[in-house]
Batch of 4 targets.
Target 1
Amino acid sequence: MGFLDIFLILVSSAGFLHGILLAVYLCFLKKRKTLPNILLALMLTFMAFRIGKSVLLDFGDHLEPIFIFIGLASLLLIGPILRWYILTMTRPTVKWLPIYLLELTPFFLVLTMSFFITKNGYDTTSKQAIIIFGSTLIFIYLHFAFYIFISNRTLREIKKEYITNLQTKHQRTVFEWLHMLIVGFMVIWISYVLNIIENRVPYIIGPIMYSIVVYFLSYKAFQLKVTELDGGIFKSNDNILIFKKIMNLIIKEEIYLEPDISLSGLSKMIGRTTQKTSEVINQYANQNFNDFINYYRIQGAKRMLLDGQNTNLTIASIAFDAGFSSLSSFNSAFKKFEKTTPSAFKKSML
């Protein structure tokens, strides 16, 4: 066995062990045990089992057929669990229907079949064995692809229920994470299918891509703190109604044009405490009050800068008309949001 083979084994095995350890952490070591975390741990475990089979098959000799088919059968579990995981991460409550159990039927069928396959029956020179194995392989990967497609469609449909500017910070985080998870599974699926379609693509590419994907997803999961979140963040509350009131005052009443508008003043307008108003703005706009108001002031100033009827107005005049109390604060805010100065912006647009 050459150096390259040893290196490939180490890389793919590292991803396998990392996936197993992360699953153990989510199920047994993490204090906050939630259903989404358990489902994520199951996906990692079954995928790691599938990858372990690939490593043994590529570098081991005379692997028992039962292990090959059980490894392939594990893919039939990952698809349904992925869909369930998306539902539990985006719904406050999930009504578990008996039909969900039927989604596991293909797994049990292939698993049962694996116990009846002997080495003689798995003879690759047998035409019958090739047909059975090939048909099973195609079905498994089409099944996995189907669930990736269904999971992505489910996620898109759920996102449509939440207008972008009415998503909380945590909701945006969950949508971002689930999108990355689906893409990660697509990458793994493609890496294996390429080997089936084109023999020149090494079989070990699958485990290596899995290792890369699982390390990246682990990093993003802890960076985004998604293991602390679940479908409860989509539970209805009156915060969205408060934010709609705020946006009504911003868009229709254009209160951002008032130089003396303050957090306390806005809170009185909507009949809430300053703490609650600040919390809602931070939750839905992902900004503090000053940045929130200044953002809309800058948008108004941009429209005035580009309006041909305002050619005689100075930058300072536009700044005051947009609601700023000083030219320096206007310039600072403009550069913060647009990464350029007002005069340079106007010149580049014209």
Note: Residues 127-160 form the longest helix (34 residues).
Target 2
Amino acid sequence: MCCGGSIASAQPAASAQAEVLFDAGKQLMAQKHFADACAKFDSSQQLEANVNTLLNLADCREKTGQLATAWGMFLDAEHQLRDSGKKKLETLAKNRAAKLEPRVSKLAIKVPAHEPDGLTIMLGDHPVTPGTWNTALPVDGGTYAITASAPHAQSWSISIAVGNERDAKVVDVPVLVPASAPPPSVVATEPSAPDAVASAPSAPDQPEEPVAHHSRVPAIVASIATLAVGGVALGFELSSRSLYSQSQAEANDAVQTSEWQSANDRYHVAQGLGIAAVVGAGVSVWLWIRSSGSSDPASAMIVPVVGPNGAGLAITGAWR
């Protein structure tokens, strides 16, 4: 009888405390102290669950930017109010949830198709159940630590920031690296008798290292590029000469000066490209020698050739 009386008297006290906390939360909401108001509503709901308190708590969570939590609470309130006869409150909860849904941020944790046995995913201090893997789920804005671990594998973790509203983040969990295995133990053995020890045979002569053969693709590319640059240089040279001859026959001084200047510019461009072609020729020769496997770089020579109409390079020698 004593114990029964104590339990019966505790129920009204909890209801009274819940009511006081609810009123305090309403006052704090009016003063725009939303974080403190949420704490009061939450404590009131824990003492005595009430759909009116849940609606106020959902409204408070929305004002603090916890949109996913608020959305879930409005949905919960709507479910509780179905078939309750309180159509006005049910419609309120349904409308608030519908308006919040497109604003809620989402986070998806993608796991490899062949995840290791015993894989565990943690979101902060809370485990992420396998049924929610690879699915974009609503979350409140904030920074989250995601950790993946499995037996006999090195754990992996990452920190990701999610915006309060309309953000969508995806975290790809990599294939976990196997834990490093200890090196195998080496067991030393001794011969059973002195006569069982055989003299170590002398080491055979080391074979000569084969000559490394390199791909000829770089040599071909360099040769083509050199020919192209040389061709462009020749084009500028011929164009410069033609324009210079044209300027000599021009009667108008201004036009003659302009054409002469243009011819001079083309001449300088031709010179620069010619130098580039010379360098390219040298690189091409070196690449051809390298790709042929010759160890004697002096087996081929680059000889400059100068003629009345220009200058160039001649390649002499032989290589394999």
Note: Confidence is low (pLDDT under 50) at residues 1-9, 183-204, 294-299.
Target 3
Amino acid sequence: MLLSSLNILVAGAATGGASTALLLARSGARITIVDRIQSPSAIGAGLALAANGRAVLEALGLGPALGCATELSATRIIDGRGRTLAEAPPDARFAVVTRARLQEVLVDALFAEPNITCRFGTSVMRASTDGSVVLRGPDGETREQFDLIVGADGVHSQVRDGGAFGARLTRTGVRYLRALVPVHVSDATEAWTAAGVFGALPLDGGTYIFASCASPALSRAIEQRDLRALREAWGNAYAPAERLLGAVPTFGDLLIHEVIRVDCTRWYDQRLVLVGDAAHAMAPNLGQGANSALVDAAVLLDALRSSRDLATALAAYDARRRDKVRTVANTSARLGQLAEITHPLARTLRDRMLVPLLKLLPQDRQLRTLLQESPATLLRIARQDHATSSAVSH
């Protein structure tokens, strides 16, 4: 398919949308990217870039700009007393970067790309399967036509609402807090405690912390916006948490969100297609949300470039991605359920029986499943020129 014949709208300029826009534009497509925020900035604290997501960013030439990322060899899962329950395999290396830095790098690249028109401060009001869309920007509403509309607009996607995607949103009731704190930790840990999960990942200038808030004491502290009570509740379950939360200045410096899962029976409908959380929001326990969005971008490019027409391309993209991502989402959900066990007897059984069994599973197979596509394949896809063997037929 000749991508230079395509006029594409990308809705959403976060990780999935920005990377999709850059890959398609560098392969010749004319891209308009919109985001409701006038100056898109990251909502979040830190981000763990696994080998699959990093391969896409490296292929885009953004590796040097992300040189501040902190390389981590492995993460230890520990209990509330700091005893090691499990360790990630050596090949499961990742780097931690602030979401703000990643977003800054992506937005700079968007503005520098001649095939991309950035229209920030513009929202998708309605999108239709025929490629028409109603946009609301600073000068009011316009109705416009595109060959393809990419919905990278998150859990509550407006693009998804315009098609028949069979979307199901599942509210888990589990809330997580996240923050960046100016406290140094020596290694990456995720503690499975009597109060839930508390994670700490070192990065440049401090530590990225994340914690679940499902216990009654933690839930009350969140509802009352009581940082002191939050520190005490976590400190009772896991001593290092009190020190790390003690470095958070005010309750307003915490980012708190409920984990919502998104499943779709299909990821495309005529001229609409989904990437990232719009298609597959998942629990954060495997750290594959943003990484999967980056893989979506590369596979969508590969499908468009290698197919004879748009319908064939989108069907190929859906077939290649949907089942793989659902497997990761299911695994992440199950891991989250294990990590959230708080009953003393159930935790003892988990730590002494279930966790050791996980170590017996083939680690190379687990890693392939987690990454979904090999990093080498993603590098090859994203680095190819935009030459194609056939013209597009709409």
Note: Residues 288 and 370 are 8 Å apart (CA to CA).
Target 4
Amino acid sequence: MNALANKIGRRLSRFHYVRSAIDDRADLSAFKARPDWRIFLGMFLIAFSFAMCWPVISVLGAWSIYYKRPWIFGIGAPTIYFLSHLCYLAGMALCGAKYSMIVFRWLTRVGVEKLLGAKSRPIAQASTVATDDPPATS
């Protein structure tokens, strides 16, 4: 099984994206910086899209039952769902792409390194990755 995983890791490491993630030692250090206004606005839009959609659709369903007018739900629910989806897409466009790429590069590096095994990594990196202790500083 380890031979198969190693073979898969070697094949994956041929791709430019994977090789650059490994060579650059992709990490999650970008999450330490304070986010700018675009990130906050994007997160707000994503959260607002979730908070807006299903409660409003539920209220529309209740109204359509109470008033015996199914068109309230039939027209209102898809409209609200569409607006909620647009709000979510705007939020993802503002903040999702940047952080998604950071996380995917890190996951790629970690996943391929696990497939390759500790023997394939440089000695200094293999020793720090193998232990759970933080590196000693002087």
Note: The CA atoms of residues 67 and 90 lie 34 Å apart.
